[in-house]
Amino acid sequence: MSGKWTLKYGLAAMLVAVIVIAAVLVVNPLSYLAPSQKPSFLVMLTDPPTVPANTTVLNLNYSKIMLYVHYTNGTSEWLNFSVSGTVDLLKLENMSETIASTQIPINSTVEKIQFTITSVDATINGTVYAVTPLSSTIVMSVANSKVNETFSGVLVDFNPTLVMIQAAESNGTLVDYFVLVPSATATIVTSLNRAQIKVGTIVELGQNDREKLVHVVQSFSQNLTITSASLSVKGNITTLNVTLKNNGDINFTICGLTLHGDFNVTPEIPTRMGERTVLGTIPFRVNGTSLVPILGVDSASLVTSALILEPGKNVTLTFTGVLEFNKIYTFKRRRGSIAPMIIAVIPIVVTPIVGATYTLRLMNEGFQTLKVNATS
Length: 376
What we know:
The protein is mainly beta. It has one domain (38-375). It is 12% helix and 54% strand. The protein has a 23-stranded mixed sheet that branches. Strand 2 (55-70) and strand 3 (76-88) form a beta hairpin. The radius of gyration is 27 Å and the shape is globular. The termini are far apart. 34% of the residues are buried.
């Protein structure tokens, strides 16, 4: 009798075990695999930045990495990584650094990647400066997005431009003000090694991956284009119109653009070091269909929102107004004078030079440019 009961409970225990294992596999179909067999998927960052001379460190603090994954069963989700960290972007030229690691089933599609920039700082001539990103949330479509190997990842080519503007805060304090203007693309890469699973690992970027990134930039540049632009000046009023078109089959995210060239700067009052105000780049944030110039500490605090441009659609972004920021000047007292040093906060008006040629650079996904002449 006891043997029958033992056999009966033994079969029941086996049945329960089978049910438990099946439930685990439904919840996590990868759990039965050995570590070497699991389809590891990495998030890696590479970066050739454009920075001012004598920049030795460009630290980017990131958090909230998310992947939009489409699975083979037809479901989709934003896969959220509760990670954060810091990378020195200047150390990643022709190198890649692992910033997250997960597991994604084979034949899934990683359609988008998003991460948050929590803060940025730069060391220039030995001084550490706080940097304001043009956009704190970076969203990119992923090229070659199918996961077809057990060990692969997404490589983000983060190619920012660090812009310096000398201005004064509302209380009159002089600051060298820095804006980080991002441009980024992303693609699935393979031929990785197991050592790269560890977050923080830096390896040299292979030639194949370099060529793949170049191809992705060229492809995105053809899909998201600046079709036309106009730049005009009347007195102190500058008007900029930029028309974009999405020729591709995916949404593109646009956070801003920059205008590069030589500008009239008035008044041209020399500083105590004998220098004059030089402004070669004006960054603009996108807020709906408006362009918001970032020309000082106060304007950088304005809340703006990126633009999503759907396939086949076009949009015209506009700015009309005075390009202006505050600058502090100090004048030494004359020798023998008891008068204190004179400090003046002077509004500086910036206008394009009529007849000059300027370069527009669209930032965020890809890196599109267009030449435009300034008219009166």
